[in-house]
Amino acid sequence: MADIKLYGADWCPDTKHTRAFLEQQGVAYDYVNIDDDRTAAKWVMEHNNGKEKKPTLDVKGLVLTAPSDAQLTEALRSQRIVS
Q1: Rounded to an integer, what is the distance from CA 39 to the centroid of its chain?
Q2: Which residue in 20, 49, 56, 61 has its CB near the most CB atoms, within 10 A?
């Protein structure tokens, strides 16, 4: 199991971008398509004031919603996933 769980949807451009960014950085993550997993969709909504925002990431307990590349990089550094 990876330190990062990425919740999103296959059709979502922001999800696609975040997945590509993590892959370019060589960072492992677990992907959950919330269109196929209602429990995961509920988790996303619980962390986004009732909204199904994509992507939502759990980075070692730090929850990020639709982060910019810079925000995601900072989170990866603060959680010591990258240096």
Answers
A1: 16
A2: 56
End-to-end C-alpha distance for the chain, whole angstroms: 20
Whole-structure pTM value: 0.95
Count of residues making up the chain: 83
Exposure string for 13-46, b = 16+ CB within 10 A, e = fewer: eebeebbeebeeeebebebbbbeeeeebbebbee
**Cα–Cα distance measured from residue 24 to residue 48, given in angstroms and rounded to the nearest whole number:** 27
Give per-residue pLDDT as tens, 3-48: 999 999 999 999 999 999 999 999 999 999 999 999 999 999 999 9
Could you tell me which of 66, 60, 75 has the C-alpha nearest to residue 25?
A: 75
- At the fourth CATH level, the homologous superfamily of domain 4-78 is Glutaredoxin (3.40.30.10)
Beta bridge partners of 17: none
